[in-house]
Amino acid sequence: MPIATVNPANGETLKTYEAMGEEEIERRLQLAQATFRTYRTTSFAERAGLLNRAAELLDDAQQDIARVMTTEMGKPVKQARAEAAKCAKAMRWYAEHAESLLADEEPAAHDVKDSGASRALVRYRPLGPVLAVMPWNFPLWQVIRFAAPALMAGNVGLLKHASNVPQTALFLEDLFHQAGFPEGCFQTLLVGSGAIDEILRDDRVKAATLTGSEPAGRAVASTAGDMVKKTVLELGGSDPYIVMPSADVDRAAEVAVTARVQNNGQSCIAAKRFIVHTDVYDRFAERFVAGMRALKVGDPLEEDTEVGPLSSEQGRTDLEELVDDARRSGASVLCGGQRPDGPGWYYPPTVVADVSREMRIHREETFGPVATLYRAADLDEAVLIANDSAFGLSSNVWTRDEAEVDRFVRDLEAGGVFVNGMTASHPAFPFGGVKRSGYGRELSGHGIREFCNITTVWHGA
Question: What NCBIfam families does the database record attribute to this sequence (predicted)?
């Protein structure tokens, strides 16, 4: 795949970039290693000052970088501005909280005495250069939720961004440089996916984090395992959205539309499988389909656009094939389901019902504005349908019955359970999944400690 900005609204190639050669990669690896030796000794206050400055610069650049993101991957520009604002918020959150999250921990006094020590503590120390392999769908947020905690912990970052968002990738490197971070603290590597293996095998790279597809995660995990290096993986998702009879069904249907089509439906944590109790199924379906039909699809740079194009022609083809396979296998397409005429990689908001386990759309992730609708006889069947997936990123449940909430929290196989609301990420809460959605956690204290050397310090009597 070429490293290029291709506008998904019209297919026009706007900018292309040459991949970095071996000499430039080597120079940057040397710089990362050298910078880490000194940056790791800086204080939390110094790092926080730099990160807060980066947040200020990002706020100042919000309008411009939003247009860049929209032009590169097609998200509505209002959502792009919100993404930039969210990134600045997360940077400030880690600047404020990192020191306390990584404070020395003192074991219980009786355990210290029992170990034969006069005193003991646990200290979190940075690992070194961390390789981040990041996707295009949230081209700022995916990077910042790694970079902010990593830099506050004293690590340095090497970013291999998706090849279709090179301008966003270069903006990020410049952002940290302009904020005053030492040269080499955060570097963008303009390379293709074929270069990842060799970079990860380099002894100077101490760990890796990847957000992306399952095949990409398998490749990075395999290499990292071979080299005995720590990894965090956030892969695909096919999140269930369960509606029970006690729920506010009208509100559930309204939120369901946003939960499905946020970011043009190209979000790992977007709700994708809508599992509705039979007692309220017809009511929910009517309102949900009407809401999907009413969405404005169009130029993502227009302020009132709600759904823009998919990021690539191949992405649209993949989505079409899932819908067409379901239709041929007996599913009902309640709205959408047909590629529109005209330029750009658009696909309409689509709802598919009467889905069976044999259909590809049941087993695979739909990365675009396509929802599948299921009828469940009771809570037990809702849980069975929800867990009948290779993925386990997050989940949404709508109910006013606390006993039902307890059951869902106990039984759903997911990294998150959002009750009477849609899944969203926040710097204070851990983010990640189970099963083929990956392992490890980003954000919160759990995320900042993922790339730390958890060190036991023991003093004899």
Answer: PRK09406.1 (NF006915)
Question: What is the Cα–Cα distance from 234 to 432, expressed in whole angstroms?
Answer: 6
- Compute the average pLDDT of residues 413-420: 98
Predicted local distance difference test score (pLDDT) of residue 118: 96
- HSE at residue 315, side-chain half, CA atoms within 13 A, is 25
Sheet of strand 271-277, all strands in order from the earlier edge strand to the far edge: 332-335, 350-353, 370-376, 271-277, 239-243, 396-398, 418-419
Kindly report, residue by residue over 118-147, the tens digit of the pLDDT: 999 999 999 999 999 999 999 999 999 999
Cβ-contact 46, 152 below 8 angstroms:
no
Mean predicted confidence (pLDDT) in 230-242: 98
Residue 258: pLDDT over 80 = yes
pLDDT of residue 461: 81
Q: Which CATH superfamily is domain 239-426 in?
A: Aldehyde Dehydrogenase; Chain A, domain 2 (3.40.309.10)
Instruction: State whether residue 323 is helix, strand or coil.
Output: helix
Q: Determine whether 198 is an active site residue.
A: no
Tokens, residue 413? 């196989």
Domain ranges within the chain, ordered by starting residue: 3-235+437-460, 239-426
Distances (CA, A) of 289 to 214, 237, 260, 292, 376: 30, 22, 12, 5, 18
**Topology (CATH) of 3-235+437-460:** Aldehyde Dehydrogenase; Chain A, domain 1 (3.40.605)
Distance CA 85, CA 88 (A): 5
In the prediction, which pLDDT does 223 show?
98
Closest CA to 217 of 231, 228, 229, 233: 233
| Encoded amino acid at 62, one letter | Q
Instruction: Tell me the CB-side half-sphere exposure of residue 321, using CA atoms within 13 A.
Output: 10
Length of the chain (residues): 461
From the candidates 72, 83, 173, 268, which is the catalytic residue? 268
Q: Which two tokens mark 304?
A: 């009132």
Confidence of residue 1 (pLDDT cuts 50, 70, 90): confident
Sort 5 into a burial class: Cβ within 10 Å, 0-12 / 13-18 / 19+: buried
Active site residue 268: yes
Arithmetic mean of pLDDT, 261-276: 98
CA distance to 261, 386, 414, per residue, from 381 (Å): 26, 8, 17
CA distance 287 to 289: 6
Task: Give 27-53 pLDDT, tens digit per residue.
Answer: 999 999 999 999 999 999 999 999 999
Task: Spot the catalytic one: 83, 173, 234, 404.
Answer: 234
Give the amino acid at 329: S
CA 180 to chain centre: 27
